[in-house]
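2024-03-11 09:14:02 INFO queue: dequeued item Serine protease, len=547
2024-03-11 09:14:02 INFO validating residues
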Amino acid sequence: MRMMKCANENIVIQLGKEDRKSIVATHFPCSCIREDECLIISQKPEKIEAAQGQHYKVIHPRGKYSVFYIDKEGGVHTKTKELFRSNAVKQFKYLCVYGEKGTTVEEALKRDGRFIDDLGKFKLSDNENPNVLTECTQKVDNLDQKAFKICLPLNKRVGDEKQQENSGASNNLQQEREMRRISDVAKQSGVSVKTALEKSGSSNTKKIYELLRQQFPDLKKWMEERFTGDSYQEELKLRKENFGKIQQSFSEVHRVRKLLKLGESVCKIVVKDVCEGTGFVLFDNFILTNAHLFKGHVNERKFQVDTDVLALFDYEEPEPDINYYYFTCEKTLIDLDVELDYAVIELNPEGQRPNKKTTKKIKVPPGLLEKFGPVPKSGDKDSEACIIGHPAGGVKKMDPTFITAIQRREQAVNDHLHLYKDTLFIVQSITELITRQGIENIMMGGNKADSVVTYNTFMYHGSSGSPVFDALGRVFGLHSAGYTYGFPQHTKSVIEFAHPLLTIFDRFVSNLKEKGDEKLLEKVEEKAKKNQYLKEILEADEPMDTN
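2024-03-11 09:14:37 INFO prediction written
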């Protein structure tokens, strides 16, 4: 089969098998397509749509969209007017349009990209009841599954917003149109004046700069609406600042030395013939790691008979060097919590070295419980972090990164998807995949938004259970998972997350109390008494908010 390769702007996607009934935009959200729905994709020589910046938007659940239909036949005062960017769409009865609830009809059609840029102050007439009109400034919320015709004002050409007021009005109108085209390009993609010139079709640089100066108040207002207060300047500086902060924090020798020392407590977890992950010493012989490593291999807090678990320390050099040592794990788990995705396992006391006999007792490295701390308070900014683990089951690695604040998570995902903006099917596949994985849950307003810490890292499979450190050397997170997608021989993630360790500690202590394990609880209290954050949790009568 020969792969069809063409630009998104030349693609036509028919929705359903019914002959030439409706078509959708190339950025139509997959959540709005019924399961087993047929999509017929074809290519046209001319430009069908000019949507910009849509293919890497996060896909929301179906309930957050309103999907409606625009008839190819216009309503009143449109018989001689062009409504669509290409006449090719008129081969179909309807253009299927979507809009996030809360957006206006005008915004939805502009975002669609298949309609001309200058529709003006149009209205929509309901196909079932033509006397019912919807203004272009109204919200799309109540339009779902309805069909409409576009109607224009009497004696108004498409795009004419104002009457001519003097003999120079026609020139002013032309300037307004040209200015609006440039403004639209700039708003949609944040491009330079040069790019705006190319996309708007103008070649008069001096004129364009003058128009840009004239429209400055409108641009400033739009910027202020998008970036309140000083957030616009903060957004411009953010990436540069983050990179500089990470360089500064994790290039200072004393910090690196401290992290390397703490990293001695990090181990590779091997569930024989099942999977590999990462863990770290909590205290004594107890290891903290992710619960999902043992999914399907635990019955009533015990590993199945044929399930063997090992913890490898000092696994820092690639084979054939075998300088690491390992411990086997007890069959009974100390604690396991699916919601917070953590497990506490106990090591057998006798450590071993591969292919070597030793009479010297091998000690478990120091625990990190006493180093537990809160999630760095980032506010609107992002804070430094560093992950130490065994990605892909390989040697120990460390990855300096920074925490992505809640309000910036969606933008971080969009920035990642922007890498594939010219490849429609990859973007749509990735967005559908991460939507099914539940990425909406960690976005602002999601049910897990406040309960996880997010960041970007190359630590994918095999690093689950890694400790996440702050710039002071405190460990605050248990690296747990990411929203992943894959190519052959290669897996990537749009964003990753950790569970806060103070939250895990609170749950661990509560579970020990519930089980009545006083002996282990005493050990925990003894180890935690030097840590102010852990003491507060132990002394609290009720579970506290530790995030």
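2024-03-11 09:14:37 INFO annotate: DSSP finds twelve helices and 23 strands in the chain.
2024-03-11 09:14:38 INFO item closed
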